């Protein structure tokens, strides 16, 4: 009995140790909405998860939280034994296979992706036929392009599959609900507000091959010339057919000022859009890649969703890079519709 009391006392001390302390917690609405007014281990786990699913929600804001020295030593311990503390708590944005950038070619005639390369990639299929890509942002939600549902928005007509092969999917799910942005104009001439979220049923259990990407915060910046990767089952050339096996390519963010030049897109790129690719052409997404992810890693190797494949002038054409929905511009909308 004496040993039992000692163990319980030790456990109580661990659970109530101030691993992380919230600064000015009563004035910060993010914490107030979650009722996080304590500083014990339970609060630490809640804060570490964050709204965007990444540890940066707490650790990147020293004005909001104070990290105890023992907590930092705990993180170092996990790093030494080879565990990633960020993925340990959140599981977002991690990849099994780390493909060197030099081996990544354009989707149009590029290289196949291997299982586990891009575990958040999903295929949206209408009546069993691949139509669009999508990105897994939780075990029940996908984010994709609104224009994918321009002609058919009934959930019963759609399913989602996961894995690199369309013919032999790792997992398949039915669609429970489709939420298209309220301001999206359902016509071929408009590209504004090209975003939708899709709710799955049942939920998807995470594995090494299937799990979520990290969502950025609305204030997160992805500067010009950032290397990103776009993936999909789209055509290998303009007006071609979709392929069975997932492909991948590296592209770089092009600033809106450059993308709005007369010889590029002549002023039609809005703040809610971003361009990625190369002005000389050669690498790009194509038809069938719509709705799919544009991602980039942070300094810890966690992958964040930067953009959603939206539109472009043909595929891999000179001075016509791919245009993507800028995720940070719609981060609050995603949170409003999904709670993420």
TrEMBL record:
Q: Say if the entry is tagged with keyword Aminoacyl-tRNA synthetase.
A: no
Identify this protein by name.
Peptidase S1 domain-containing protein
**Source domain of life:** Eukaryota
Q: Which family does it belong to?
A: Belongs to the peptidase S1 family. Snake venom subfamily.
Q: Does the keyword Hydrolase apply?
A: yes
Upper classification of the organism: Eukaryota, Metazoa, Chordata, Craniata, Vertebrata
Q: Which molecular function terms from Gene Ontology are attached?
A: serine-type endopeptidase activity
Q: Please name the InterPro entries in this protein's record.
A: Peptidase_S1_PA, Peptidase_S1_PA_chymotrypsin, Peptidase_S1A, Trypsin_dom, TRYPSIN_HIS, TRYPSIN_SER
How far does the signal peptide extend, from start to end residue? 1-16
**UniProtKB keywords:** Disulfide bond, Hydrolase, Protease, Serine protease, Signal
Question: May I have one GO cellular component term?
Answer: extracellular region
What's an example GO BP annotation here?
proteolysis
Its source organism is: Sphenodon punctatus
Domain annotation Peptidase S1: ranges: 107-339
Q: Name one Pfam family in it.
A: Trypsin
Task: Tell me which PANTHER family the record gives.
Answer: ACROSIN-RELATED, SUPPRESSOR OF TUMORIGENICITY 14 PROTEIN HOMOLOG-RELATED
């Amino acid at each position: 009995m004496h040993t039992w009391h000692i163990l319980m006392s030790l456990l109580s001390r661990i659970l109530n140790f101030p691993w992380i302390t919230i600064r000015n917690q009563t004035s910060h609405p993010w914490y107030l909405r979650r009722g996080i007014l304590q500083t014990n281990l339970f609060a630490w786990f809640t804060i570490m998860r964050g709204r965007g699913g990444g540890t940066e929600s707490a650790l990147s804001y020293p004005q909001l939280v104070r990290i105890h020295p023992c907590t930092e030593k705990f993180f170092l311990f996990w790093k030494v034994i080879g565990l990633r503390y960020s993925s340990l708590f959140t599981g977002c944005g991690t990849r099994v296979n780390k493909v060197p950038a030099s081996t990544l070619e354009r989707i149009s005639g590029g290289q196949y992706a291997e299982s586990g390369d891009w575990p958040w990639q999903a295929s949206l299929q209408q009546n069993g036929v691949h139509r669009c890509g999508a990105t897994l942002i939780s075990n029940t939600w996908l984010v994709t392009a609104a224009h994918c549902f321009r002609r058919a928005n009934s959930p019963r007509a759609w399913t989602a599959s996961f894995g690199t092969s369309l013919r032999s999917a790792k997992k398949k799910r039915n669609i429970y609900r489709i939420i298209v942005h309220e301001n999206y104009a359902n016509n071929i001439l408009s590209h504004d507000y090209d975003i939708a979220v899709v709710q799955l049923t049942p939920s998807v259990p995470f594995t090494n091959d299937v799990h979520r990407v990290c969502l950025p915060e609305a204030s997160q910046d992805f500067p010009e010339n950032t290397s990103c990767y776009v993936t999909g089952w789209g055509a290998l050339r303009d007006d071609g057919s979709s392929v069975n096996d997932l492909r991948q390519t590296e592209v770089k963010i092009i600033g809106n000022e450059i993308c709005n030049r007369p010889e590029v897109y002549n002023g039609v790129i809005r703040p809610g859009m971003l361009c990625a690719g190369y002005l000389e052409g050669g690498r790009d997404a194509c038809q069938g890649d719509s709705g799919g992810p544009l991602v980039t890693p942070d300094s810890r190797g966690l992958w964040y969703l930067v953009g959603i494949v939206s539109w472009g002038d043909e595929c891999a054409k000179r001075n016509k890079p791919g245009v993507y929905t800028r995720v940070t511009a719609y981060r609050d909308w995603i949170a409003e519709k999904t709670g993420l």
